[in-house]
Amino acid sequence: MSTPVDYYQRYMDLSVPDPANGGDLATNISVGKYLLGLKDEQTNARVALLRKLQKDLQAGKQHDSNYKIKVVANTDSGREEAEFSTITTQENDPLWMLIRYPYAGKGSPEGIQAVLQLVATDGPGQKALVSPDKLQEYCDDLLGVDCNGFVGSFIRNELQGVPWSDLTPKDDAVSPNNLITSIWSDAPGTVLKSAAEVDANNTHLLVLVDANGDVVPGGKPPHGHIMISQPGESLTTAWTKPNLGVPIGTEVPAICVTESTGAKKADGTNGLARSWYHYVDDPRLKNKGVLLVDRGVNGTTMRVKIKALD
């Protein structure tokens, strides 16, 4: 099973399988930018791919009634295949869900591979929409991942073991398309009551809370945020900044946090990032289990709640 940092790296260095042979259409593709919701460009590109797949299925079935769209993904376990005999625009249509999520910031690494493979592959009904050498440009223009998409996909596919090709709603699994409040409540684990309970050997879920200590749900302003930590990585720092409210020289612990953020990183970009999050109890809301964190990704301060995942 991948760790959060492994999963982050899969977005940053994608290979796109060629379904016709054992090779790849493209390698070293990065899909690390932050993408929140559909814009006109994403909607139009998604519709173009939908129409291509509809034409391919119609033409393929004219020659073979059992014709299916095949998708191949490179995973930690090797190359995996999924086949689809239909595509509709119904909410829970399997192939439609697989291709629509990456255009809205909710795609898994395998889902993004699926989109890139399908747009760059000739089908029986229509030629490729994009040549393989243009796939990085296609990603830069149209694809990305938001915080729910990254964390929700990791929990669903890696921790809960749901196949990447299955995006249908399940009572016992989170969805990258869920609100932050739903991912927080549905992810199995123990909500921590204080900074002292943080064990760096565990994987932790972190969520932004408001001034009252309530989880910000996202979906509409005010925007929330959700993050996940890397197990087994920690450090302490003699603190010199005023933002955490501790005396100068206090040893403050930190865990390695991976996220996709819409906030500007230190380099001026946004999207996938990993950095040290130093944490202390929030002096005003510690009775509600709220922590103050210093975000290494950009040096800002945030109030969060933390859950140790099972």
Would you give an account of this structure?
By secondary structure, the chain is of the alpha+beta class. It has two domains: 4-159, no CATH class; 188-309, no CATH class. Helices cover 25% and strands 26% of the residues. It is built from seven helices and eleven strands. It has helices spanning 4-12, 40-63, 94-100, 109-119, 135-142, 147-159, 180-186, and strands spanning 14-17, 24-29, 69-75, 78-84, 189-191, 204-208, 226-238, 251-261, 271-281, 291-295, 301-309. A six-stranded antiparallel beta barrel has the order 6-7-8-9-10-11. It has a two-stranded antiparallel sheet with strand order 1-2. The radius of gyration is 21 Å and the shape is elongated. The model has no long low-confidence stretch (mean pLDDT 95).
Quick tags:
2 domains, two-stranded antiparallel ribbon, 7 helices, elongated
